[in-house]
Amino acid sequence: MNSRGTWAYLWIAGGTTMYALDAKTGDPIYNMTNVPSGTIYFGPSGEMLKYQLVDYGTTSNPNYRLLQWNSSYVVEYGKIGSQDAWGSQVQARVYDATERGYDLNVSIGTGAALTGNIIYAFPEDRIIIGRFTKDNITLSAINLKEDSKGQMIFSNINWQAPDKLESIEAETYTQSTGSAISQEDYVITFWVKNSRINYAFSLETGKYMWAGTQQTYADAWVAGSLGGQNVIVYNKLISVAAGGIVYCRDIKTGELLWTYEADDKYTESYLAPNWWVRPQFASCGIVYFGHEEHSPQEPKPRGSPYFALDVETGDVVWRIDGAFRQTQWGGRSMLADSIIITQDTFDQQICAVGKGPSAMTVTSPDIAVTAGTPFVIRGTVMDISPGTQSNAIQLRFPNGVPAISDEDMSEWMLHIYKQFEKPNDAKGVDIDIWAFDPNGNEVHIGETVSDPSGKFSYTYTPDKEGDYEIFAYFTGSKSYYGSYAKTDMTVMAAPEQIIQETPPYEWYIVGMGIAIIAVVLIVGLLNRKK
After folding, report:
1. Which residues contact 247 (CB under 8 A, 6 or more apart)?
2. What are phi and psi of 70, to 5 degrees?
3. What's the CA gap between 461 and 435, in Å, rounded?
4. What is the rounded CA–CA span in Å between residue 345 and residue 503?
5. pLDDT tens-digit series, residues 191-216
6. What letter does residue 263 receive in the DSSP assignment?
7. For residues 193 and 178, is the Cβ–Cβ distance under 8 A?
8. Minimal CA–CA distance to 460: which of 442, 446, 448?
């Protein structure tokens, strides 16, 4: 196989050993032992990177060096030219990752001690070093750009807190804390649960920028170790925790732009009137949120929400209550190829949410109709997403699952997949009906809407004799891809009407007179006979 220089691996870590598996088959390929500890970052080609800051000097005369460990360099180390092939050469190999993996070792040369540890890295850009105590925050940054690797961008910028930062433990920061970081904006924020305030600092200068307003009381339940509550997207800080109120702030100024409450319709949450929610991901100007919990109760509270908000306005794009429920331990939902993949801890299923396929039928009379006579075009439009093909759904809906309008989708999906009550006022989808008449002309017959059973109909009166091709189209929606169906029919000419001439009005009068005379004569003859 000619792979054109690309090799896809799945990685499994066990202690200090990492195992590379073939992504297509799961077969083991090679191992790396003695992998250094630290956070994994991904380079521009997907390589795994780790960073270390080492002081080879003394307290009075520090000698800092920055080391970069590169998973690709473990294999590439010492190779030249055509020896760089990765195919069969790596199979069944075991590489010592400490001996072979370092591709960067540069002097920092600050001349002074750096306060703190590496807290985050932007590969090929900069490394952020920080130290956090109850009283202050100190930040430094080291350059990773090609022409200035190891140079200090800023060093030991200290901020004295106006109040003690009770929830920040000394020198602790990981990617999973309640803080957020943005390379695009060069901003880092820190969440302090006791004051329920976010503090923002510049990653260009290391200086303090702003402090947010206090968040709702229940957010004090969330410490940094339960993080992931805050994200920076589209130049905005999105912050939400156990209190279930989403706060959106301008990342440069801290201005509060909007809030949204993830209200608990069944009032079963034990923390607040709202659901504890967590940002999941952002895409196309929309931020998605799902319910979060740390220690589940039994029975589980009903109706956990999943919703999408417009990042500019805070308006609800869509929301569904009770379809699936996330957990602190199960990880966030993900977006791939426009499909949301999420865990549901109500029933321990994996759910895929996205735009699904549809299918249509259309029929016309099987016998010819007469021109000028109305007839009915009938058909169906159905949801044929993979989920509808399961035994559980087919047993409940043996005639198929109807396609339903976007505005009714959330309630309809709850009915189909979670056995909620059927929304009887749900609307179907828009249907457009066209035809080619006997002369080959395209004719727009009309438009209609399917009903909650998936059926639609339209009455049409043809005016030409001959053969017609009739097409019913569902052009698609935000929930379904489009589909169409075709049928044929024949129209006969109307039978010729025979018009009989009626005699003039005077002849009616004469005829009536003759008839009366005849009756009188007959009666007279009968009387004479008697």
Report:
1. 212, 215, 237, 238, 239, 240, 256, 259
2. -125, 120
3. 12
4. 89
5. 887 788 899 999 999 999 999 999 99
6. B
7. yes
8. 446
